[in-house]
Design goal:
The chain has helices at residues 12-37, 192-199, and strands at residues 67-70, 94-97, 105-112, 120-128, 134-135, 150-151, 171-181, 203-214. With 215 residues, it is an alpha+beta fold.
Length: 215
């Protein structure tokens, strides 16, 4: 019988079996420890993981709202006497902001929707330059104003501003409407009917401001 010098209690066949078991245990330990600690290698030349892109906030300022104001009043205010038949009958100062960028001309109309015949036009101004910001107080009754705008006929048949003058004891609304138009208006006549016809299909945007007056 063969004896093992290091393990005298083992015979040669047993010694070989012991060595085999020991080697197998070592291999299993190496495989397990390697699988827990190693990571999958990246392929050569593969790009690094991309970082999440952060969208930059837009710095574009939104367009201003298209608004109109009359004589520094608030909506629904009473129109001062100076702009009516009780006073000097002057046209009020009118200002606006936020004209659309595609506007070719502006149209200003002042209406009394409470008039006896359902509508009375007190002021009609058309072909106002789109880069203008308003009309100053006390405009003349001229056909063409200083800024190149043109004045049409009121419901009374006159040109220029016709002052509000409702029946005594009644309160009427007076509505300033401003139209942004995609063309210059070239009508043979400049009354309300022809201007309304010209605005049809050519109005980009409209804004209004309401005042009241009682006599």
């Amino acid at each position: 019988m063969c004896r093992n010098t290091y393990y005298p209690e083992c015979t040669c066949p047993v010694m070989y079996n012991c060595r085999f078991v020991l080697l197998a245990v070592i291999i299993i330990i190496v495989v397990i420890s390697g699988g827990c600690t190693s990571s999958a290698p990246s392929s050569p030349g593969s790009p690094a993981p991309s970082q999440p892109a952060y969208q930059q906030a837009s710095s574009t300022t939104p367009p201003a709202a298209f608004v109109i104001r009359a004589a520094s009043l608030t909506p629904g205010s009473v129109l001062p006497d100076v702009y009516t038949c009780k006073g000097a009958s002057e046209s009020p100062e009118v200002a606006w902001d936020g004209v659309p960028s595609t506007t070719k001309s502006l149209v200003l109309i002042l209406d009394d929707p409470d008039a006896l015949n359902s509508r009375f036009t007190h002021w009609l101004v058309f072909n106002i330059p789109p880069d203008s910001r308003g009309l100053t107080r006390a405009q003349p009754n001229a056909k063409v104003l200083a800024n190149g705008a043109q004045q049409g006929e009121t419901s009374a048949g006159s040109r220029g501003y016709y002052p509000p003058c409702p029946p005594i004891g009644t309160t009427h609304r007076y509505v300033f409407r401003l139209y942004a138009v995609d063309m210059d208006i070239t009508q043979p006549t400049a009354d309300r009917e022809s201007i309304d016809w010209a605005l049809t299909g050519h109005t980009i945007e409209k804004t209004e401001f309401t005042t009241t007056f009682k006599r």
